[in-house]
């Protein structure tokens, strides 16, 4: 059985459809599931998957800020609080093409692509709604299996 992560980031977006499209174009996610409000049509819950060619799969869950779930009132977008209090780290096989894809979108580059002292290349971007995504080739899981 393939090991899976036990922590999945969950985020809220004002325009969840645009966020899904951006995450696909800029960072290489694919849609696993998208559930919409039956009457209003907005994204209530979505699951996006990221697969590495060298093995490994990650996921992010997201939804619209205006969904009516019990938990919705506890989430705030970065713009509402003046920044972020957490971010996501995405492990990729090769940062170069992901960096190029992120640059071709509306992403704000916070840290340009560089080689890190601890191994591999990395960069950081802010998505169109203010969430910060660190992207890197460093894989801390490799240390668990060594």
UniProtKB/TrEMBL annotation:
<dbReference type="InterPro" id="IPR037523">
    <property type="entry name" value="VOC_core"/>
</dbReference>
<protein>
    <submittedName>
        <fullName>VOC family protein</fullName>
    </submittedName>
</protein>
<feature type="domain" description="VOC">
    <location>
        <begin position="4"/>
        <end position="138"/>
    </location>
</feature>
<dbReference type="InterPro" id="IPR004360">
    <property type="entry name" value="Glyas_Fos-R_dOase_dom"/>
</dbReference>
<dbReference type="InterPro" id="IPR029068">
    <property type="entry name" value="Glyas_Bleomycin-R_OHBP_Dase"/>
</dbReference>
<dbReference type="Pfam" id="PF00903">
    <property type="entry name" value="Glyoxalase"/>
</dbReference>
């Amino acid at each position: 059985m393939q090991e899976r992560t036990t922590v999945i980031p969950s985020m809220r977006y004002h325009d969840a459809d645009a966020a899904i499209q951006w995450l696909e174009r800029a960072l290489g996610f694919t849609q696993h599931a998208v559930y919409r409000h039956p009457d209003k049509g907005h994204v209530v819950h979505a699951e996006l998957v990221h697969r590495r060619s060298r093995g490994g799969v990650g996921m992010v869950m997201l939804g619209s800020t205006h969904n009516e779930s019990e938990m919705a009132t506890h989430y705030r977008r970065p713009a509402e609080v003046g920044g972020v209090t957490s971010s996501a780290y995405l492990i990729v096989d090769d940062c170069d093409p992901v960096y190029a894809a992120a640059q071709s979108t509306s992403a704000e580059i916070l840290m340009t692509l560089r080689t890190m002292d601890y191994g591999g290349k990395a960069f950081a971007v802010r998505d169109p709604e203010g969430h910060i995504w660190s992207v890197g080739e460093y894989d801390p899981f490799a240390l668990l299996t060594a």
